[in-house]
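Example record

One chain of 164 residues, shown exactly as stored in the release files.
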Amino acid sequence: MRISFRAVVLLFCLGSFAALAQTANPNLTWDQLSQDERRILAPIETEWDELAPQRKIKWLNIAKRFPKMSPEKQARLRKRIHEWVTLSAAQRSAARERYREIEQLSLAEHQALRDKWEAYQRESTERAKGEAVEEAAPAEAPQEAPAAPETPETERPTPGGDTE
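Predicted structure tokens for this chain:
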């Protein structure tokens, strides 16, 4: 029995989709998440049951990738999740829209944006270092000119020796 290449590809795609559907069930309640998923996604616990299914899938996929990340990337992701939770609905919507816009950029435009961002980060770091140095150095008190000695004004003799 000969199986066509298309049939194999179709079966592979269906199998992959089924695996994805099993690992990222958008109908899970918070209590149905694994202990690791709850630990990773803890900042969004209060919102979880209200999230749209596609958002739950995205968060579950993030949680699935988390253990494979380096400690630095894990720390950065934790920070970003915390920052995301603090955003208002309008700010989140704006961030999603900006992300969609960035996805549409050409490779050259994307690289230019990345370069611009890296330059901004370098400037911010340098500025912060400069401010830290200024704060660490004791402020010098302004030097005042020495005061002139106070002398009582005396009457000067007028020419000819007359005094008033």
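Notes: The chain has a mean pLDDT of 78.
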